[in-house]
Specification:
mainly alpha; 18 helices
Length: 438
């Protein structure tokens, strides 16, 4: 966060307010490095370049997705979600009110194709935004266009992400909101002024609240985000006041008003397809807590999830979707703080989310035989940890490029070539093979 530049572009560590209580707690509690930066490997990137790259990645990704978007209904829950949105009904638990309202607006406003295609298009827009936000985050973190291009291609044009970014489902919106939360968390970690940190915290609170109104697995990102930001802000007496604490709490809960869509739709009864009765408090809570499926379970059985088995499936799918090269780079990214401690808190935050997702979701996923149809059901939930892994891989690739000291003129054309191979290879169904050859 707080960085004091010398004429040699070095970073000097500042003590946290918890470490320097005797000084009044006015220094940054999270710094971008944690120690002196010997390498100064992060290039200065202008705001205009970051914005331009974000816009480019959004347009490029959306163009590619639209070439393969489903013209009508795909499989999965898309049919139910589309009809529910069109007629303003209640979707299956926990209701997905944010997605339902977005889809309702798109279906009734956008004069393009069938209602199913419009919802598919909505998912493509959220998918393109996910890629754009990922590229912006990596560009801010590493300062390298080549790293951002390669990692955007490896994530956004993997089979799993591409499939659900052209399908009218809730997962594309979840990816977008999680990536936006991660971007603002990166910004928060690298802020030094308490008032700027507070403003970023308000943005994070709103994003976290929005994420919860779409998909509950986002809580595995929301909870550590809220805990770390709350702990960090507690070291700044000038902003850690009752008023600000109350304001941040309200900002986090405000998007929860979207859940009023459930009792409203249940009361109006305009939909031929609607799930349950949410006009009573008990009916509302029964639906939101997914008691039809089993609260804190994937399916309603007495069995519990096998953490070790599910973790093996997750690692296997990460290998298949992101390739062994990305997993190795992610491992290098995890090790970066061991020798430079640059972006120590950022990398630690990503690692925390990988571990928490492995532990909590894999214990909730109580499907014993993850094969065939059931594999298709559960693999959709691997997208959230994929984002963390790719961000870590970006840090690893950045470290390798810094060590190699290759010139930008040499690396950037290779990055564009990798993007082209990834896209073409994915369209031909051989993207993994192409990358492994590289």
């Amino acid at each position: 966060m707080a960085r004091t530049k010398t004429k040699h572009n070095h970073e000097i560590r500042q003590l946290s307010p918890h470490e320097s209580a005797a000084n009044g707690g006015h220094t940054a509690s999270m710094t971008s490095g944690g120690c002196k930066d010997e390498s100064a490997d992060e290039d200065e990137v202008s705001t205009n370049l970051i914005i331009a790259f974000g816009v480019f990645m959004f347009i490029f990704s959306l163009f590619i997705y639209l070439q393969t978007a489903y013209p009508s209904l795909p499989g999965g829950d898309s049919g139910e979600l589309t009809v529910t949105a069109k007629e303003f009904g209640v979707a299956h638990p926990p209701g997905y009110p944010l997605f339902t309202m977005f889809a309702y607006l798109v279906i009734h406003i956008l004069p393009l194709g069938s209602p199913a295609f419009r919802v598919n298009l909505l998912s493509s827009v959220f998918g393109a935004l996910t890629n754009s936000l990922l590229g912006v985050c990596l560009l801010k973190s590493t300062g390298k266009l080549s790293v951002s291009l390669i990692m955007c291609a490896m994530l956004g044009f993997s089979r799993l992400f591409w499939l659900w970014h052209i399908t009218g489902e809730v997962f594309s919106l979840n990816n977008c909101l999680c990536m936006a939360t991660l971007l603002f968390m990166y910004k928060y970690i690298h802020k030094s002024d308490p008032s700027e940190k507070l403003r970023t915290a308000y943005s994070l609170a709103l994003l976290c609240g929005l994420a919860i109104t779409n998909q509950h697995t986002s809580s595995l990102l929301v909870l550590p985000t809220a805990a770390l930001v709350g702990y960090d802000l507690s070291g700044y007496k000038e902003v850690f006041t009752f008023r600000n604490t109350l304001g941040l709490t309200l900002a986090g809960f405000l998007p929860g008003l979207a859940y009023l869509q459930l009792p409203l739709a249940s009361y109006l009864k305009t939909a031929r397809v609607s799930w349950g009765d949410q006009t009573t408090f008990s009916g509302f809570m029964f639906h939101v807590l997914r008691e039809d499926y089993g609260t804190l379970k994937l399916v309603k059985t007495e069995e519990t999830g096998d953490v070790i088995l599910n973790s093996k499936y997750l690692i296997s799918d990460l290998h298949k979707e992101l390739t062994i090269s990305v997993l190795i780079l992610a491992g290098i990214g995890l090790a970066c703080p061991l020798w430079t401690r640059r972006r120590f808190y950022w990398i630690s935050f990503l690692a925390l989310n990988v571990v928490s997702y492995l532990g909590f979701f894999c214990s909730f996923a109580n499907i014993k035989d993850i094969s065939g149809l059931y594999h298709g059901v559960i693999e959709r939930f691997w997208m959230q940890p994929c984002i963390y892994v790719v961000l870590l891989a970006g840090e690893g690739l950045n470290a390798l490029l810094n060590i190699s000291r290759l010139s930008k003129n040499m690396v950037l054309p290779v990055a564009f070539l990798i993007v082209a191979l990834r896209v073409v290879g994915a369209m031909c169904g051989s993207c993994t093979c192409v990358w492994c050859v590289l």
